[in-house]
Specification:
alpha+beta, four-stranded antiparallel beta sheet, 15% strand, 10 helices, Helix Hairpins, five-stranded mixed beta sheet, Beta-Lactamase, single chain
Length: 465
């Protein structure tokens, strides 16, 4: 007994049956009718009742039989829609076209009963109610069956498929995201990052890529460490012959005549420049390695700035240096290190500002999400910096214009030292071209609040590239 699942699924198919499908429907109805009449002839109402129970239990299809408008068996009430379908068949009215998609499907046909032993009137109308088809073999066994039309099922499986694809994509791209994060950390100077321990359970190709990435990071870290060690060793080794050179220079002055004065002065100037370069290299190396024994304490930032401006005015011959605004502020950290940083930036502005112009400096307080901050703005009226040079401006030995820097005595280390010193004090330094020409350097530093720890450690710096 029962009909194929294909027949059950007719309910949720688009309602434009082909002739073949309609013939299949009529054949299924005829078979149910023949089997029901046979059960009636052999067992009467009890036989028909047993047949109906068996069909519903095996296939989930509900069958309703009528003799005219009276339900058969009499103790099996028919719903209103089944009675309406029977009345439509009795009246000969054409069936109503089903909706799209149909919420329910009722099929009906006339039967030709045979004379049997039962005294009760034989059924002559069959009405069939198709049940909601069960879900196809489920993707997720715990999902409840949908109690509505096919488009809800389509939406359900689209949602489930979308979620499955989303988590599958995230699982497949997780190693790539880890590699990308590690690459960003390397781009910002953190060469200690490693990814192979986190990619050990990934596919073989991805795991191999992670190991190659770690090998590359280790090699770069070794090269940078070797470069720093080389600079540090060279700087230390040059100090001794330079000191002997200065002693020999003084002895030569005592013994030489007037004709040797200018060459000896030139040697002295070059020796001074070399000594300054060595000092800058040692300072930069110490900052890059996070050495913090530079004397820490609380000092007045505005007083330090006034002292630096006074020194700049003494050295400047072609321009003026003025403090436009300076609010009293106290800073916790290394006063000497901050003096070197601010002095390098101010000297850089004096070096490149236009003739008879003024280097303008201001010190103001600002509020941020991290608390009260000091903002130092240093603006010159020079040629500015090309846009492509800003990302390299604070790198050691970088020169915007080699010939100009050498002529002005620059070594390319001043701004690198300034950036490292500011970072040690948990601050930032940025550069931008002014609209009317010139360069604006902005330094922000956190101001020590009363409720903060006074022994706040200096921040470690990122490794220089």
């Amino acid at each position: 007994m029962g009909v194929p699942f294909y027949f059950l699924a007719l309910k949720n198919r688009p309602e434009h049956f082909s002739p073949g499908m309609r013939d299949f429907e009529m054949q299924a109805m005829a078979r149910y009718g023949d089997e029901a009449l046979a059960a009636w002839d052999t067992g009467g109402q009890d036989g028909l009742r047993a047949f109906l129970d068996t069909i519903e239990r095996q296939s989930g299809i509900r069958l309703y039989f009528f003799n005219g408008s009276t339900a058969v068996p009499s103790d099996r009430p028919a719903p209103a829609k089944a009675r309406a379908k029977a009345n439509q068949i009795i009246s000969g009215a054409p069936p109503q076209p089903p909706g799209f998609p149909s919420e329910e499907k009722w099929l009906g046909r006339r039967l030709t009963p045979q004379t049997g032993h039962s005294a009760a009137p034989a059924p002559d109308i069959l009405v069939l109610q198709l049940p909601m088809p069960p879900l196809p073999p489920p993707l997720l066994p715990l999902l409840p069956p949908m109690q509505s039309g096919p488009w809800n099922n389509i939406l359900l499986y689209s949602l489930v498929g979308g979620l499955v694809c989303y988590f599958l994509a995230r699982s497949l791209t997780a190693p790539i995201r880890k590699l990308r994060e590690a690459s960003n950390r390397i781009a910002h100077g953190d060469f200690s990052v490693r990814v192979s321990p986190e990619l050990g359970h990934s596919g073989r190709e991805v795991a191999d890529l992670g190991r190659d990435f770690d090998t590359m990071a280790e090699r770069i870290e070794e090269l940078l460490s070797s470069k720093k060690q080389l600079l540090r060793d060279i700087s230390h080794e040059l100090r001794s012959p330079l000191a002997r050179l200065n002693v020999a220079l003084e002895l030569a002055r005592q013994k030489a005549g007037e004709d040797a004065r200018q060459p000896l002065e030139r040697i002295e100037r070059e020796s001074g420049r070399l000594n300054e370069l060595i000092g800058d290299l040692l300072t930069l190396t110490r900052l890059e390695n996070g050495i913090q024994d530079l004397g820490r304490g609380e000092f007045s930032l505005n007083e330090l700035l006034e002292l630096i401006v006074a020194d700049a005015l003494y050295e400047a011959r072609h321009c003026q240096v003025s403090i436009r605004e300076a609010e009293p502020m106290m800073l916790q950290g290394s006063r000497e290190l901050m003096r070197r940083a601010l002095e390098n930036v101010v000297r850089n502005a004096v070096r490149y500002t236009a003739e008879n112009s003024t280097v303008e400096i201001s010190l103001t307080g600002t509020d941020s999400t991290e608390g009260k901050q000091a903002m130092i703005v240093i603006r010159d009226h020079g040629p500015g910096v090309p846009d492509a040079a800003f990302e390299h401006l604070f790198e050691p030995f970088y020169r915007v214009d080699n010939a100009r820097d050498r002529q002005s005595g620059g070594t390319g280390l001043g701004l690198a030292i300034a950036e490292q010193a500011v970072r040690l004090h948990h601050g930032t330094i940025t550069a931008a071209n002014a609209d009317q020409g010139g360069l604006i350097m902005t330094i922000t530093l956190p101001i020590l609040q009363k409720n903060q720890e006074e022994d706040r450690p200096l921040s470690p710096t990122r490794p220089a590239s």
